[in-house]
Write a structure and sequence with these properties.
By secondary structure, the protein is mainly alpha-helical. Helices cover 62% and strands 3% of the residues. It has helices at residues 8-12, 27-39, 50-53, 92-115, 120-140, 142-184, 189-201, 207-226; strands at residues 66-69, 72-75. Strands 1-2 form a two-stranded antiparallel ribbon. A hairpin with a 2-residue loop joins β1 and β2 (72-75). α4 (92-115) packs antiparallel against α5 and α7 packs antiparallel against α8 (207-226). It is flat. The two termini are 57 Å apart.
């Protein structure tokens, strides 16, 4: 299931193209794979045609699988068993203590390089171990960071909804006040003049057209008094 080597254009591009096997994820191929898996539940990638092999997820790495990063080889630790005790919450004092140890170890390393250059290796290994420990402590805060970020986003959304609801209620109150003045005939002289002018020059119009235009004039005056609702 080896993928073809990427082209030079894909390597030099600022945003490279997605891997070519994404073209295999079509509705027809997914339907064919589902049919084959129903007929043979123990199906493996080697039993499939080439266009369907990429649809199966790769097998998980073994517990002691090694990987390389930054030119160094690391081993994936075995997953914790179900009988393992619950993980303790992150301790900020541990991170602070590790940071202080890093500073002291760095000063000791510089002293060793200045006085006895041949004895730098143990201090260097100690610093590497401290950096790995600090990285592990920082990763323990990832769930806490995600939870707090979600809480902050939800609080902003609730506050925004409250402001929109308050604005809608204020607009409704202004509209009620304008409509009450229209019913009482108090104020809104502009509305009375507009309707009188309309009635004076529309004697020959039908009643329905006159009623519609009166309603339009009412809404125009309301928008002038209250504001546009868009």
């Amino acid at each position: 299931m080896a993928d073809p080597p990427p082209s030079s254009a894909a390597i030099s591009a600022a945003f490279p193209a997605p891997p070519p096997f994404y073209r295999s994820f079509t509705p027809d191929n997914l339907a064919r794979l589902s049919s084959l898996q129903q007929s043979n539940p123990s199906l493996t990638a080697d039993d499939l045609p080439p266009e369907l092999r990429n649809l199966l997820p790769p097998p998980p790495p073994p517990p002691n699988h090694q990987y390389r990063t930054f030119g160094e080889t690391h081993e994936i630790p075995a997953p914790p068993s179900s009988d393992a005790p619950p993980k303790e919450p992150p301790n900020p004092h541990r991170l602070l203590q590790t940071t202080r140890q890093l500073l002291l170890t760095f000063l000791s390393l510089t002293h060793s390089l200045a006085t006895e250059p041949d004895t730098w290796a143990p201090k260097w290994d100690e610093m590497r171990a401290l950096f790995s420990e600090a990285h592990a402590v920082v990763n323990e805060y990832r769930p806490h960071q995600a939870r707090e970020t979600l809480i902050h986003m939800m609080e902003e959304q609730v506050e925004r909804c409250k402001m929109e609801t308050k604005a809608c209620r204020e607009a409704c109150e202004r509209v009620r006040g304008v409509l009450e003045e229209v019913e009482k005939g108090e104020g809104l002289a502009q509305l009375d003049m507009s309707i009188a002018e309309l009635e004076g020059r529309s004697k020959t119009r039908k009643d329905e057209d006159l009623k519609v235009e009166k309603e339009h004039r009412v809404w125009e005056v309301i928008e002038q008094e209250v504001g546009n609702f868009d």
